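Q: Given only this backbone (442 positions), what sequence would you predict?
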């Protein structure tokens, strides 16, 4: 039996039937959507690790395990039934078992699958979720995460932070740990260039650090860069003052701690410079825009509209920007921003946090206005045996497909689109829009 029908059948079998108050999903349309081999705009796949090898620590520039404990939305907890559904679909976990007996059995089956598939485990995981290509947001790639199934998205925030970050790190208990990660990553980038420190002038920093780093990443296969700045500061990258940024850089390049106002001046300029260079190299720019995670995360600082000054910059029209996670929950602001010619939005993490009916509402709004700007994504991350990245990919993929079917069924039955157009929109969201953004052959 073809894989696409195995995937579709697994999900349809476990999905609840619509109640009398719900609009039924067009089954023919759902089957078609389930057959589409998707391009995942945003995820953090894990590199296969052999016995005795060190754990993979390159899956994210800002892993959140070092910050104070915080709550997550309910659907992300292990108690949500969707995770048991993923485990049954992927590992045929015995549904009758409970508690520790179930967890022990699951752990054994996950380990067995990883052992049996070895370096091919990541590709197997994509096949189970019906994903053809995954954009891998990682510090570095490695064995098992190779093209064409996996394409690299590198991290850019460290390049905005060439000066002492101690004052910036003191913002919150969360940022104390996160800024240290960025300092470490910048040092790694400098070592890659055989440098031990940053130059004395801002222009020299751009020419000898920023541009060569992005070029190295592009040459190594990166199709995009990623900013996670919302974990560190608000997204209000205002119109830059290059002369003022140069003065700030020169003042502190050899020591001292900039004020927050001074660092903002420098970061506002470097954000534009880095994004512009990425665009020149043909790399898209992903930006984390979401209301959570972290106990001290600033939801107001990650509001999508804060990015409008940067998106309106005429010198950046050659750069494709992707609002990662769709700016949830402020999706109306996102709708206004993707009207701009070089701005897109993906639904990664929304596909994991939200139930299909909830996600369908955002999809229908965007598809009714800017259907060529909407990208599928999962944000697959590793949360252990009960939430391995492959399970997150499966949940994200199945949720997105069902949500898309709900949205398109409503549009079809309201006479907004034809069936042919519904299928075309499904292909656009699940793969074609992303192929254009990231330069992937269709």
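A: Predicted residues:
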């Amino acid at each position: 039996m073809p894989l696409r029908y195995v995937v579709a059948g697994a999900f349809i079998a476990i999905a609840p039937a619509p109640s009398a108050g719900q609009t039924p999903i067009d089954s023919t349309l759902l089957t078609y959507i389930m057959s589409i081999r998707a391009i995942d705009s945003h995820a953090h796949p894990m590199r296969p690790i052999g016995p005795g090898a060190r754990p993979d620590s390159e899956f994210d520039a800002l892993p959140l395990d070092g910050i104070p404990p915080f709550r997550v939305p309910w659907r992300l907890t292990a108690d949500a039934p969707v995770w048991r559904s993923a485990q049954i679909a992927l590992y045929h976990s015995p549904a009758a078992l409970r508690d520790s007996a179930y967890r022990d059995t699951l752990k054994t089956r996950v380990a067995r699958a990883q052992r049996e598939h070895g370096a091919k485990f990541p590709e197997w995981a994509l096949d189970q979720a019906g994903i053809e290509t995954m954009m891998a947001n990682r510090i570095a790639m490695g064995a098992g995460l190779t093209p064409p199934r996996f394409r690299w998205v590198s991290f850019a925030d460290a390049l905005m932070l060439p000066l002492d970050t101690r004052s910036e790190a003191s913002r919150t208990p969360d940022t104390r740990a996160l800024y240290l990660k960025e300092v470490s990553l910048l040092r790694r980038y400098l070592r890659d260039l055989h440098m031990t420190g940053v130059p004395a002038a801002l222009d020299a920093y751009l020419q000898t650090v920023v541009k060569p780093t992005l070029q190295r990443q592009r040459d190594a296969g990166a199709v995009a860069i990623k900013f996670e700045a919302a974990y560190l500061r608000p997204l209000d990258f205002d119109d830059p003052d290059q002369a003022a940024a140069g003065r700030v850089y020169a003042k502190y390049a050899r020591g001292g701690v900039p004020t927050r106002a001074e660092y903002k001046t420098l970061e506002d300029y470097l954000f534009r410079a880095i994004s512009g260079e990425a665009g020149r190299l043909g790399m898209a720019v992903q930006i984390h825009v979401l209301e959570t995670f972290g106990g001290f995360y600033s939801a107001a600082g990650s509001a999508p509209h804060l990015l409008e000054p940067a998106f309106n910059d005429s010198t950046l029209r050659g750069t494709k920007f992707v609002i990662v996670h769709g700016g949830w929950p402020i999706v109306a602001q996102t709708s206004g921003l993707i009207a701009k010619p070089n701005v897109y939005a993906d639904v990664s993490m929304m596909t994991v946090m939200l139930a299909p009916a909830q996600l369908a509402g955002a999809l229908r709004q965007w598809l009714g206005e800017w259907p060529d700007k909407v990208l599928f994504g999962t944000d697959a991350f590793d949360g252990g045996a009960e939430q391995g990245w492959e399970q997150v990919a499966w949940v994200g993929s199945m949720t997105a497909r069902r949500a898309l079917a709900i949205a398109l069924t409503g549009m079809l039955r309201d006479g907004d689109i034809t069936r042919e157009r519904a299928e075309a929109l499904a292909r656009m969201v699940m793969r074609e829009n992303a192929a254009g953004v990231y330069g992937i052959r269709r």
